Amino acid sequence: CAVLFIASPPTFVSAQKNLVLQSANVVYKIKNAGVNTNGSFKKVAAEVLFDANNLEKSKISATVQVNSLDSGIGLRDKHLKGENYFDAEKYPVISLVATKITKTDSGYLGTFNLSIKATTQSIQLPFTVTPNGNALDFQTTEFSINRLTYGVGKSSITLSNTVNISIKATF
Length: 171
Fold this sequence. Notes:
disordered N terminus; 1 helix; single chain; 171 residues; mainly beta
């Protein structure tokens, strides 16, 4: 995916650059039977237009392929991708689209529409954009969602409703 970042000194080079998503890591953690379990989504795409001097014109859009879910246990992955949880056949993509970005003391605060299955909710994510050699690193702080809000599984005595997520991407 082509990505365009525009930023101001001294944080970044001031010239416009077309950049390509080099790597992305979407990691989740959830308690299951009292034990923290985690996994990640391996297939991520992003389109970004970022201008630190004009945040109103900045855009961030990302998608995750549900079938790329990897918990490290194949049987669990199959179960999570099934219709009782993510229903990957019917809902193959999770999307995150910025609707507003503001500057904060420690980076940025994005208001995003998070769409999982048939549900879209507005969430706020603090994030940073940092130079790393010739690349730029985008990173959210860890954030939490309620899986039931998005119809991922049903209420359970053993499985937590809270899922903690972090996102890192390099352009």
